[in-house]
Amino acid sequence: MFRVVDPDAVALQPTSTERLTADGYLPLPGLITADGLALLRREAAGLEALARRRDFSMACMDDSPRHMTTLGGQIIGEASEEIPALYQDSDLLELVSRLAGEPVSEVDDPVERHVLNILHREGDTHGAHTDDHPYALVLFLEAPDDPADGGLVHFLPHAGALRDLDTADDARTAHHRAGDAYLLRSDTTAHRVTPLTRPGLRRTVLNFAYTTPASRPHSTGSAAELYT
After folding, report:
1. For 106-143, what is each residue's pLDDT tens digit?
2. Shortest CA distance to 211 belongs to which of 99, 114, 136?
3. Are 70 and 112 in contact (CB under 8 A)?
4. Prediction pTM value
5. How far apart (Å, rounded) are the C-alpha atoms in residues 18 and 140?
6. Which residues are 201's β-sheet partners?
């Protein structure tokens, strides 16, 4: 069986954990193998028929907008073998643990553990939020080639409030291509996806949520709003 993700593609520098701690974000370019990308795209194409369109403002996240199509982990778990297997893969868990600098494990919540997020209309956006679990591994299956087309991750580590994304000097954006990934300290890093700027663009990602032994379980209700 070919590898879906390639841990060998990640340059594990001694500063990786320090960068994640400081920035709340760690890019992982080319993490998905070519065969793996083809496989995950086929899975996502089949699952998209089960996904739901969402257009609303999320009250628990400062009324930030959601214009996107989503599929929750509970449905992915029933309809796909490949995505849950990748989420639980021991090599991937080991890699994420090494990058995080602490052991990570699967989350119990079947809704949020692995979700599919699709932006595919002009103006589609995943508005400002933090996550319920400490780490998010985001895998890019499709993405605009040009940063000017939108779909960028906009993030601020150690944010005091979501609105700080608009004003903080150290808020940053990052562009990714299909096959890339990033690891986010997602419970303390305010983040959003910038709107797609024109018709015909697509941004499709799998988001894998992980927890740690020291993490205190909590829920904002945001996952239930977006994925059930």
Report:
1. 999 999 999 999 999 999 999 999 999 999 999 999 99
2. 136
3. no
4. 0.97
5. 24
6. none
